[in-house]
## 1
Amino acid sequence: MQFMDVASLIRSVSPGALIGILVLLPALSGLLVFAVRLNAARVGIVIVTAWVVTGASLTLFLWGALEQRSLLFTPPPVGGVSWDLLILLGDGALLLIFCILGAARRSPQIFALALLQAGGFLWLEAGMKPPHAHAAPLAADWLAIIMTLIVSIIGMIIATYALPYMRDHEAHHQIHVSRKPRFFLFLLLFLGAMNGLLLADNLLWLASFWELTTLCSFMLIRHDGTEEARRNADRALWMNLLGGVAMIAGILLLAARGEPLSVRQVLADSAGGAAAQTALLLPMACFCLAGFTKSAQMPFQSWLLGAMVAPTPVSALLHSSTMVKAGVYLIVRFAPAFHNTYLSDVVAFVGGFSFVAGALLAIGKTNAKAVLAYSTISNLGLIIACVGLNTPLAMTGAVMLIIFHSISKGMLFMATGVVEQHMQTRDIEEMQGLVNTMPLTTSLMVIGILSMLLPPFGVLIAKLVALEASVELPALLILLILGSTMTVVFWTKWTGRLLSSAPSTPRWGIERLHSMYLIPLLLLTSGAVIFSLLVVPVLTQLVIPAVTQYYEAIRPTAAQIPPMGEVLQFPWLPFALTLTAAVLIPLWIMRARRPQVRDVYLCGEQVSGLPTVTFRAAGEEKTELLISGYYFESWVGEETHRRWMTAVGVALCILLFGTASLWK
Amino acid sequence: MALKTVIPFGPQHPVLPEPIQLKLVMKDEVVQEAIPHIGYVHRGIEKAAEKMDYVQNVFLVERICGICSFLHALCYCEAIEKLLPCEVPPRARYLRVIWGELHRLQSQHLWLGLFADAFGYESLFMEFWRNRERVMDLFEKTAGSRIIISTCCIGGVRRDISDEHLEEILQTLKEVERALDHSIPALLEDYTVRKRIVGKGVLTAEKAVELGAVGPVLRASGIAEDTRMTGYAAYDELDFKPVVETAGDCYARAKVRALECYQGIELIRQAIQRLPDGEIAARPRGRPNGRVVTRVEQPRGELLYMVAANGSQKLERMRVRTPTFANVPPLVAMLPGCEFADVPVITLSIDPCISCTER
Amino acid sequence: MFNFVHKCRKKSPWIVHFDAGACNGCDIEVLACLTPVYDVERFGIINVGNPKHADVLVVTGTCNRRNARVLRNLYEQMPEPRAVVAVGACALSGGIFHECYNVLKGVDGILPVDVYVPGCAPRPEAIAEGVLMAMERVEQRSREPHSQMQAEPAEREERR
Amino acid sequence: MRMLRNVMRNLFSRPSTRLEPQRRAPIPGVRGTVAFETADCVYCGACGLRCPAKAIEVDRPARTISFDLFKCVGCACCVEACKKGCVQMREAYAHPSYQKPDILFQGAPVLKREEK
Amino acid sequence: MSAPPGGAALPDIEACEEIELSALRAAVQRCRDQRLRFITITCMDMGETFALYYHFDEKLKMRHLLVHAPRAAEVASISDIYFAAFLVENEVRELFGVNITGMAIDYHGHLLLTEDNEPTPMAKVRMEG
Amino acid sequence: MEVERILLALAALLFAPIVGGALTGADRKLTARMQKRIGPPLMQPFYDAVKLFSKQRLIVNGFQSVSVSVYLASMALSLVLLVLGMDLLVLLFVLALGSVALILGGFSVKSPYSQIGSQREVLQLLAYEPLLVLMVVAIYLKTGSFSASSVMSLRQPLIYSLPLFIVTMILVMAIKLHKSPMDISGSHHAHQELVRGIYTEFSGPQMGLIEIAHWYELVFLLGFIALFWHTNLLCGALLALGCYFAVIVIDNITARMTWRWMLRVTWLFGIGASLLNLFLLYGIAGR
Ligand code: NFV
Ligand code: SF4
Ligand code: SF4
Ligand code: SF4
């Protein structure tokens, strides 16, 4: 009875209003936070926004689950002004800001790209009179809803986490004039823009939100205002502007062919036969390029690396659910349009290459955030590789990866941030033995890391799906195989550093964490664990329907989603439970019968009773044992590989356009 | 943070038969610095030699090291014999060569085995040590003990070797040689082994002299110095040429030692052939007086004894400088820049004998 | 069942060898035990080279102050039941070196020795026999009603 | 690859392990353990004096010889020193033991001349 | 060679050159220039002074330098000329208490002995500390 | 059907250690004979294991026990999965899970040898994992399915079409069983620069568990090889044992190499051989 009530209640809400909340509320709260400069008020606003937005996204999700249909929505005009016009004006303003920024930063690239983009925009609006879409500018299908759910929940968790983080951050950096209002303005605006991007169907709207995320990320990256931050922010800006230019170019090309500027319609048209598909390849290549820049694929990886100068919540946001995911989302969206073309294969190779290259470079990094960044690049590469494979199975893998990667990566960044605030270091080597000083954070972090690479966690299962999907394209498969083994290397190394500790009795002391640190961490960790335990329902109830709904609708001829028998039939739950037992039983035995602790083996020269591991060496000196991980600078250092990797990346991009314009 | 790894290597370590510690400073797995820490085997024998009488000292110096014991005794006896003075009968001189070379033979076998073990070639270790047991049996039969044979005494030797035993020695040497023909190529020509030892721990001739390397280490760097060429015992009457290699790496050192096995076998054959009849020991008369330095060639290189006596029953000072002591500085110079996996290989390539080093 | 465990223990003595200042004679004989001619692996004896895995600590040599420290450290890291075998005149009493200034006259002063193997150097067979005897002794000890296995090493030493 | 031959040959031949000591006759002339035949001993102490390890202690007045097996290094100096042939070297090696054996040889007390 | 020539007791080692303490480094440097191989240092405690023999080898011929160093005198290390000397210099300093300074690797008197050993065991006159 | 499968899994769990232990014993005996020794009795591994369990429990820190138990669990699980004919890729990841657990156990101790051993074990993972995955992919290309049971439906043994994979499998075995020339992260004989490498700090019962896990691993690897000749159980077993024998022989005729060499060989030679075989397979199939 109750359930029915809730169901009908949910059915009765206006999804349009929900979309409004999801897109506009963050922006409005951001402005509010900026205006009201009170600490307490800020905390209140952010938390309330978080709850409301989360609630809204959940409701939308439930609505979608109950209604089982996509939502099309045209927002009512405000005060007689149509939203189309508002967005148009907004976009114009953004481009103006970019031009000004370019001039102010004396950066020819930024200026030129902004100008180019503005020119394209003007041409489109003034010169071409584009055939505006007749459909609603906003659309929410199952995929978009799932994405919004992730963005909203993870984004809001990160925003909450940012509250204590920024307080500590400013305290440590002795920033007296708080820049927090500005920070939260852009943070929240970012989330709103991201939601908008996911839900937009009108390509112009999409482009506007796209630019808005670029601006927000730029502001967030340069937040600390150091020279390095500014420089890196500039780099991020110009690379993303390049993506923007590609996007505008794509839209122009579409417009030139008289295509309606609506995602759904473009996709629908692409299914209209080989000729139609071929005609659309060039704009698709443009969109893919745009997606590559945003998701930092190989020739464009550097902006994401640079972005780690930003405060950690920003990194968490950029890497997990927003920004980079926007890029992949775009490609996922348009994938059916280039199904079964060489373009698709090239996209797969761009992804595969980034997957391997990111993993390889991550091995050589001691900076935790850099490792995370490369791992992001790598994982996104995997997603894009899946998209490039362009089969329903691969799509399933891609969507799963998006979900699980967001959760785990957001969590890892936040944990790294907590460690950074406690130990003032991001260096993996200095995190040695963290398990002794911060057992709780470390445990969570270790779970987070393991959730990136081991069964039965979701990322791995997704990877499995990806591997199984990639047998279609053996050359890619090899890249994926190499990439996934390298992934194991750097994660394991890092975990090893965290756990490496001097002899100690097992104890369960827990460090004190600010609740607003702890709760987000716990939420995401348990999210990763629970979703992994429930991987089968997640797959059958969420991912497969989403893929079916949008992909199959367009490409019904494509092979049916295979039964996924192998992966689905596998008894993941019993398996996970067995492993859990394997973890818990020894702990339980240890509690019951405490084993005795002995020093480590140091060839017989250990000195007992010291807090550090110490041995006697030449001249009877007590020497501390130092162990550092392997980073193989000469093998996997950035310097050794940057050149050729960039070259390969650029070559692949050229190939992308080559195939788009020359072949089907 | 500087990526530095500082770890102890030894004293108790399975690849080191004897306790010595190397403090290794590494990056990734490349050694940056290696500081030796010794003193685990220091007993104070030089001092003890001042307390015991000079005849008993023979048994003391023999126990400086169980691998090269006979040659310690030989060098010490040579020193005292010079101081007394006392003429050693020719047969004794030849017997000393025989036992000395047998000692070198077993020591080189021992080293070849341990060296193979240093890069994880267990079966080759077994091969060499199995072969070594043949030599050990010879000791047991001719001298009455496997390790510390106690046959050298001031003025000559304590035991004679009977003709049957000489025959048996020749016979066994033939077997040993045949076995060596099988196992030495397995060491020197094997792909995996060459990968592990060629070009590792290179010591140029220049450096070798400068750092005071001795024995096979010196000869592997291309310097033809073998203390046996000074002609103690009966070496001035035997034909041999020092084994020299020029590469100066672990492979060259292995090769020198391997060839010295053959050289030793050859020398024993010569000695047995030319073995004169007669007395085996002269009775020492008087008390040693004066200072003298003697050197003999050990399996590991040049051993130096300096004895200062003042005409009493006890010595004033006995100084022992063993070959490993001289080879440690080259080792310290060779290690930086090598891989961690090569540390045991390079360390063993000087054939460290710590009990000799520390006395 | 219990008997089977005891039998297994006896049949698998893993040794760690430490040279506490020997002349090498004894060390080489310990190593020679492993070689084909003596092959102590047929009794299950292996040289594990690591105190944490070892059952028997084979000590050769006179002991001096520096290596006595190492010896204690190694012994401490061996899990019970464990045994110490002293090999060679040096390890028993200091042998010919008993009057040297840096000699502690044998292992007994440092660790509780279970089996003494006399000789200079003892023959490999004697060393192998010593190790087997040590396991025998350990077995007897652990059959006693209050097995000393659970006792902390410090207590155990007191009890001796 | 040279090793392959050796290994295969080993595999198909008899192991060279000696099932000692049961199968092996003692080698003549081996210095095993020191043994005393005190019947002729005059307790002159020469053996103790020459012993480098001080393993033999001769107490002339009490007419005892105590021999410390654990100190003996088997050099056979005592054998050479004893003019009476009371010290000999046995070929069998000493067995390991759990405890330190006390080896004490007691001769008959010195008889006063008048008692003779 | 096994028979000593002459037959008379030798008062000192052959080919031994006695030099002043202050001239030591220069003499060693000369040996180095002549590319002699450094063998070792022998120290003898003569009561008032230490006699330090520096042994060198030239193509299997020996050369020796003899220095008399008063007990408290500072003896400069030669380990910068011959790196190989660092080990024996540490040893001599530790066992005899000769005040050698400036070794390439300094073990601070703990090359062979630990803190609880009696210091300078080889010296005839015990020095404190 | 279900009951049957459960029984099968139980049987595998029960008998694998026995078979694995006996094979290890045979390995030691064979090795000894190749060195002209008599060698330990066949039962020796069992004696060792039982002894290890009867030893005092000493640890350096608590995580070690967890890691060992996860290691054992995943080794046993991967064998069960193989026996039940599950997805081979999943199976490989389970295997990797075990290795990672052990590696983390080695890393969890701040001890030089255990740490360096773990670092090298990571590199070993890097070396053999691609080979195994490629093998599974080859099987997929042959059967059109990733499940082990699909092999059973083939009419021809895999070895006919995938002979080179036997070579790569021998490489993998040498690495996984820590045999020369690949005994890099920790060898069964302690004479190694790393003492016992990654196993250095595990002692007593933990070591015993590791031994048992090794037995499972051994049986798993041999079972995997036997898959290549599924049509005839005897041939499969002979093939597996033949590979094992080859690994033992190679162990005895090579020196230990370094990890650089291992990576080079496995990546260039191993992956090369795999690709060559796949290429041939495709080429022939294409024509
Ligand atoms: N050869 C030799 Fe020695 C001597 N003297 C040396 O270092 O072995 Ni123990
Ligand atoms: S007992 Fe003899 S052989 Fe053994 S270490 Fe002592 S002196 Fe050397
Ligand atoms: S045993 Fe011989 S040397 Fe010793 S006291 Fe008796 S008679 Fe004298
Ligand atoms: S054999 Fe040597 S050590 Fe033993 S008692 Fe006789 S003289 Fe002493």
## 2
Amino acid sequence: MRDVRLLTEAFDPSALVGAFTTANPGLGGVCTFVGEVRSDTDVEALELSHYAPLTLPSMGELADNAFARFDLMGLLMIHRVGQMHPGDPIVCVSAAARHRRAAIDAVDFCMDHLKAAAWFWKREKRDGEWNWIEPRSDDYADLARWA
Amino acid sequence: MRDVRLLTEAFDPSALVGAFTTANPGLGGVCTFVGEVRSDTDVEALELSHYAPLTLPSMGELADNAFARFDLMGLLMIHRVGQMHPGDPIVCVSAAARHRRAAIDAVDFCMDHLKAAAWFWKREKRDGEWNWIEPRSDDYADLARWA
Amino acid sequence: MAVTVIFLGPLRDLAESESIEVAGPLNWEGLLAAVGPEVSDQLQQERVNVACAGEVLSDKTALNAEDGDEVALLPPVSGG
Amino acid sequence: MAVTVIFLGPLRDLAESESIEVAGPLNWEGLLAAVGPEVSDQLQQERVNVACAGEVLSDKTALNAEDGDEVALLPPVSGG
């Protein structure tokens, strides 16, 4: 079961992951990562923009690569675009597999690529001013682990 | 938020993870692994036994080690004991952190230790006969990554 | 019909525009001339990519856009 | 009161019992003698641990259980 989506509205990760788990009978394990807009900072809002002709197709390729690389039964990959507020889910990746290593590694792999190699641009609003965010050097280092 | 439990009855991971996520405001990401009794094999039932004076205390130590090793905001660690059937959740580990790497690595770390270094013994029933399961060599190799 | 040049992410602020229309055909030199000096400086950095008609170019200096094509200027990404 | 010896996991099948009572004090040699030859063979393997009074012994051959203590024989584990 493969479910890759770009959403413009708020979503409920637990509902999506629940349906995804049910849709993969026989699994040994499911690993899920949910990223949210942090609320412990002075960020008032976060905006993610994308480029429609590339972004969703590249997420599909990323899913294909994860299926090719790991022994998966299913992969769910959801990414928000648009304006979000502290506490809102931004991204949800869930992988179902017979063995836990494939599920955990696939989530790790997809998150590293979504962070630093997918067609998204992020800016955040502090004190009423918008600033663009570049990937942290940690994000590039994480990505390099899979090369 | 730290929640470590040994359960003798069936549980709903999504309800626990939902409550856990809510209990950690300000998080950047939550990683969750749920292990279930596989249903694609001819296993009729699975039984996990434990040794009460050691098992829960050792899970608590494992949680302490995860907090010491990773920059976590919260950790949920739930393990079933008793008899289970295909599709039943066995284990659920969820980690909340400011950054995804800590959350993902903490789940990976806890699962490797629960699999091969916690006081559980597993047997499965096939064709009406119970057989004890030892960790796979993969499980020992996974564990050795953290040494 | 013309070539539409789209500015993504922080390039949008530099260009003070979401997109511009340029008469085709449009090559690399024409693109640099069309986008203004600030975006042109960015474009010449390795970390900025260019897509034409929905395909990221492996060599952006080989750009060859026809009227009707969309050319996207893609600065370093930050998702998740 | 005596020492209670608990058999965990597959050792339970070998011992054909969940536990036995042995008069204290109980040392390593006494334990090996008390559990029967099959469990005794297993016990002498490095991968089998022994706990006494809720503590896993770093050197199981230094066992020194008193009446009232619980001694647990812990074969290789398999959780999750």
## 3
Amino acid sequence: MRIVRLDDGEVTRLMLRGELDLDTGDLFEEQVAAALGDRPEELVVDLHGLTFCDSSGIDVLLAARETAARAGIAFRAHRPRGIVLRSLTVTGVHDLLVGEPGSDRETAGGRA
Amino acid sequence: MRIVRLDDGEVTRLMLRGELDLDTGDLFEEQVAAALGDRPEELVVDLHGLTFCDSSGIDVLLAARETAARAGIAFRAHRPRGIVLRSLTVTGVHDLLVGEPGSDRETAGGRA
Amino acid sequence: MSELTAHLDVPLDRGAPAAARRAVTAVLGGWGFRNADWLDAAAVVVSELVTNAVRHGGGCVALHLEAHDERVIVSVADGSSVVPRRRDPDGDGGRGIALIEALAESWTVENYRGGKRVLVELAPCPRGSAS
Amino acid sequence: MSELTAHLDVPLDRGAPAAARRAVTAVLGGWGFRNADWLDAAAVVVSELVTNAVRHGGGCVALHLEAHDERVIVSVADGSSVVPRRRDPDGDGGRGIALIEALAESWTVENYRGGKRVLVELAPCPRGSAS
Ligand SMILES: Nc1ncnc2c1ncn2[C@@H]1O[C@H](COP(=O)(O)OP(=O)(O)O)[C@@H](O)[C@H]1O
Ligand SMILES: Nc1ncnc2c1ncn2[C@@H]1O[C@H](COP(=O)(O)OP(=O)(O)O)[C@@H](O)[C@H]1O
């Protein structure tokens, strides 16, 4: 997995590419810690380039959300697709991570 | 494997991407037949995007060279690299297909 | 195809789930199972089984695949005799078996060489390679 | 790692060499063999063995992999008892065994279940993941 970080004013965006699992979860946690340490207003985790996410990936996504909440920083995952969308949905964490349907602003208007 | 064909005046260029083996050899043979049927002066098979070639791939490359020779059309493979270069070299067909070292004009001057 | 099997020893490290996923999808693809969504779901199941073996199991891990016509069973054996149990999900996990139950047909546990193995029957593979 | 094995039934079709290559490189990668050039050479060996089984062998094809520490042996069994022989290359082929001999350590043939299997010992894998 590779992570590209984009700092855009108050929003820090982590764009994930590849596969999030037991092996790559640490890299994600490090990047989340670093991003939150810089205290943006919002942390957005872009899942569009993620091709795989199992339950250990879901665990680190939920942990990131928790850590952000404790630091008072808004958190949002967005644009999961394919098997990642399916895994988040069937485990019931999709809305928690991505928000209610319609609140995923950047997908609402255009292509997902 | 995918093949992109570029017709550039007298030279027809087939650019191979992916893996040339028992399964994809037919596709290559069809494209070669079609290209030779249009009677260019030279047929260049660009191997730069090829990531794999076993002996059945070598067989169809040699057959393409034969067919071109019989049709009186110049033939040249070029820019093999990695394991493809190695397979062509150790089977002794590299110079036959690509030409003597130095004659692979497009690689001689710049990046391979 | 009538009955096909594959077996694979998996060293216990953090790269094991990814290696097992890649091997299994290559094998299943070679057996004619080409539906992309189905292969993705199979990869999740394999990943959960191997991840659990790495995290909670012990000893050597062996992965087994079998296809009887359309029926595909994947199993992962480890050296621990502790039986996995679905638990309430929390901040530390507990979603692996839930994910298997959601994506596959059924799962079961057998004693195996002093440890156990967890067998999962995958959902039937839709025909065709499109998703 | 001490001794690891993998086994894989390979249905005989034109996609078999590619499927076998992908499975074998995934398995070897998972066993810690990460050198890219070495994995590429292993893929060629597997491809030659499976292609020969599809073209000249018969019956069901089974691929076997074993690693004893640094020593890796790949074998492919088919249902024909005809023994492969290096032949003079011509316009129709004859480069498969030559390629195996150039890229691997050694090869040998054994009787196996009414047919035979061709075993190849791969060259030792250089350490490190770089090529
Ligand atoms: N291979 C295994 N060996 C022993 N215990 C296991 C194994 N797999 C799962 N378990 C047990 O079952 C529980 C539920 O597994 P799972 O749903 O995958 O959640 P998680 O692994 O995230 O805790 C685990 O917490 C563990 O106690
Ligand atoms: N699995 C096999 N079963 C029977 N004969 C084989 C097998 N593999 C190879 N051979 C024989 O050995 C010869 C040399 O094989 P090879 O060098 O791979 O060349 P090619 O397959 O291109 O003819 C083949 O032509 C064939 O007669």
